[in-house]
Amino acid sequence: MDFALTQEQQDFKATLRAFVEKEIIPVAREWEQSGRYPAEIVDGLKEMGLFGITVPEEYGGLDLDPVSFALVFEELARGWMGIAGVLGSHSLSCRMIAMHGTEDQKQRFLPALAEGTRRTGLGLTEPGAGTDMQSIRTTAVLDGDHYVVNGTKSWITNARFADPLPVIVKTDPSASPKHKGMSVLLVEQDTPGFEVLKDIGKLGYKGPETCEVLLDNARVPVANLLGGVEGRGMQQTLSALEWGRVNIAARGVGVGQRAYEEALAYSKQRVAFDQPISEFQAIQLKLATMATNLQAARLMTYWAATEVRGGRADGPTGMAKIFASEMALENAIDAMKVHGAYGYSTEYEIERLFRDAPLMSIGEGTNDVLRTVVAKALVSGRASVG
Asked: Is 74 designated active site?
């Protein structure tokens, strides 16, 4: 068993780390607090080709291996978790189009998406349907060579920039089981009846916009039905979400890493009772626990990443997402305790990490629901331990 990154992966990680240190960390706290959109950072992501990390090379993308994919989100989240969000749903959507799109759809959308001149997201969640996607109420009725789409989507990252936005709809609301009546439509930004209603205020995860979207008799060409066949939307979406759980697990590792770094550095600087607080056993125990859980989460995330390329991997990706996301929150809390009152101050990084960390235990399926997914994978034999 080889737990080391390849030389190419190490070099890639070093390039990402240098970008984060120079372009993100110096401005993250100020821009996050002011609500400023990170346009300059997004331009840097374009220059590095990172909008094409899941796009095949033949369409101008990088087509990264899954571990390198995880490294992108780990390193970006270490600097500012919101920046990872700019690429997150975009990359999953690109992968979904690359895996399931018609050749016409790939040619029309993927080259510009890889460049970042077009961007995208995922139109899945609704006010009454999150993890339970089969309960969506958005419908698409065929009318000649267009679908007429009606419904509302919420919590949509990149909504104001998405072009196209893959939207999961019910093309056959009476189908049983429900997933057989679900399809994905690629809704372009200038579609009449497609409207971004508002940005949703959030505790953390600042930077990218998160919006409510209205589809009011929006007419979407039949040519934009993903894959050209109705009834495959659930399978198409789930295939992308396995990579999404790797993405979220890696973000957890990034936030956990930064929390650990901040706690370690502060413990060496802060003096109490005539010595650095890093000399106190109580602080040492916290640092050791943070580092141990962080490294375990990192290795589990890389393991899960290697599993997604081999086929269905809901067990490994679920395990990694659960563990890494909960580690991120625990590390953020422990880092705040090491900082004491300063950890609660907006002048330090810790309070931002503390606000960002909970999202990972909610996004891409809540951890409690994912525990049932992991359990089903174990019982069915799709996943095993030992």
From this structure: no
